[in-house]
User: Fold this.
Amino acid sequence: MSITTDIFRTWTRPGTVIREKLAGGPREDRALILLFAACLLLFVAQWPRLSREAFLAREAATAAGTPLDQVPGIQALMGINFFVFLFVVPLIFYGIAALSAGVISAFGGRIDPYAARIALFWALLCTAPLMLFQGLLAGFSGPGPAVTVIGVLVALLFLWLWVKLLREAMR
Assistant:
């Protein structure tokens, strides 16, 4: 099945989808691709917000009489975020997956570290479309209660899905 179909199926039948993902045995290349796809979507989700910030910075600099060459442009903001989301964030998520497997083992559960990684990376990829919506909202409206509420909702949905996938991966 296509990955988009699997993402939509995950929201209704997470156990079935994670079992299918784990049925092929441990394949670190698949885990890495899932993580990079999720991180790429998270990076794209930042574009509207970054564009807004760059525009507002240029407007403020123009109003204050600051030379525009001293104001960080959209290229600088995009470059920094590209580096962070495609090089730093994947390492953080690998650490979170290892930590979750360790915590589960410490409390007497049994989970394969690969299964813990797939559960986390797949939950992240499945919530990426919601994060794209949050990024679009942040770009259009700027910081405010709507963006905060959507952010909290996305975080709760991510945690709910991750826990469901972890529980199924432990079986």
In short: The chain has six helices and no strands. Residues 3-169 form one domain. Residues 51 and 58 are 11 Å apart (CA to CA). The first helix runs from residue 3 to 12.
